[in-house]
Design a protein that fits this description.
The protein is α+β, with helices and mostly antiparallel strands. The protein folds into two domains: 1-34; 37-169. The protein contains one helix and eight strands, in the order H-E-E-E-E-E-E-E-E. An eight-stranded antiparallel β-barrel has the order 1-2-3-4-5-6-7-8.
């Protein structure tokens, strides 16, 4: 009987250990699923404001974007641009951190977060920005920038099409 009791204890401990291991593996798989990357965005080049009714029509933007979007809507990365010409004749600069993102039905990706805005001759100040990027090269890829300092007031955005460079979305 003593032997059965030792076997029972070992079996119970083994089952308990297996249950704990299973629970830990389950918790890890949930954490991984929540943080799973659903989109990776990258690219850079030159865009031009292409909507004639935009006061910044014809202005040129040098830009770079790099970010990842997770299943829970969190995101990380950076968007940066320098605008010259048009309303931005003196030059505008935006450096934005990406903190949230979504994949849109048309395949574009919307990225948002806080940024720092600077116009030559004025002090820099913090802003919130949203940029929707569309994959492709010249004439196809582009982005639509919506922020507190956009040329077009919300809910509109500053639409730009690439004239060189590329945006990829995977």
């Amino acid at each position: 009987m003593k032997t059965a009791s030792v076997i029972q204890k070992v079996t119970m401990r083994s089952l308990a250990l297996a249950a704990v291991a299973l629970a830990v593996m389950f918790a890890i798989s949930i954490a991984v699923a929540q943080g799973r990357v659903v989109a990776t965005v990258g690219g850079g080049g030159t865009g031009v404001f292409d909507v004639p009714s935009n006061p910044c029509f014809g202005a040129v933007t040098k830009f770079a974007v790099s970010g990842v979007v997770h299943t829970d809507g969190s995101a990380s990365g950076h968007f940066e641009c320098v605008v010259t010409g048009g309303k931005a004749a003196g030059g505008l600069y935006l450096s934005a951190t990406i903190t949230s993102g979504t994949i849109n039905g048309d395949g574009s990706v919307t990225l948002s977060g806080p940024g720092l805005f600077h116009q030559l001759g004025t002090p820099s100040f913090p802003v919130n920005y949203t940029v929707t990027v569309t994959a492709g090269g010249p004439g196809v890829g582009g982005f639509c920038l919506l922020g507190e300092t956009s040329c077009v007031p919300p809910p509109g955005c500053d639409h730009e099409v690439l004239v060189d460079g590329n945006i990829s979305i995977k």
